[in-house]
Specification:
The strands form three sheets. A four-stranded mixed β-sheet has the order 1-5-6-9. A three-stranded antiparallel β-sheet has the order 2-3-4. A two-stranded antiparallel sheet has the order 7-8. The protein has helices at about 35-40, 50-65, 70-90, 90-115, 120-145, 145-170, 175-185, and strands at about 5-10, 15-20, 30, 50, 190-195, 195-205, 210-215, 215-220, 225-230. Helices cover about 55% and strands about 20% of the residues. By secondary structure, the chain is an alpha+beta fold. Strand 7 and strand 8 form a beta hairpin. It is built from seven helices and nine strands.
Length: about 230
Amino acid sequence: LFTGLLECSVCHGSITIVSGQWKRRDDSRYGCSMHAYRGDRVCTNNLLISRSALEEQLLRGLQMKVLHPDVIDYTMNRFEDELSKALATRSQDDAGLRRQVSEIERQIANQLRHLRDAYSPAIRADLDQLESQLAGARERLKTCDPQTVKLQMRDTRRFVEARIRNLQLMWTGEPRLIRAEIAKHVEKITLTPDGRTYIASGTWDLLGCGWIHGAGGQNRTGYARLFRAALYQ
């Protein structure tokens, strides 16, 4: 269920099924693939955990840590607060954008006067370019409008809640489908050995929109939440 999503904190290799079922053991086990196939010289993490224990506890941990309605509500409220603060600091940029809109409108009016005097393909091309710039500037202004932001946040919250309901319904479904849905929300889950226990940690993307490259590294396109849970044998 979690193959391809689990990473060993010691060597950063993948944690996969490394031990199968046999007559004395009725379940396969997850472990560090680097240790299993290349030994202690590559990775000292020799901790194994049964497949059923890991998958059951990880799903339960995700349910409690990031998919609980109270957690979703708290996270989305934080998201709205941070967005409001960010928009409040953009007033100066908005003023510059409004000046840009006024300047483009003035240029369009001038080009239209020239076009009335005599048709010119060059003037028509300039006019098309200016109209495209004007539409883009107006759209950027529109995204900063408080009412627009409020509607977007309402739609975002509904989208998140619908996705969470779908995930919760899938927990008992086909493993392949569960894994594909989980992969939309988390790039990796790091397992850190702690005695005979694994500590699972990661970042959950509420929107499930994947990754983009941003300044200073990779950033989620959706709103992310950190999670951490202990897994026992």
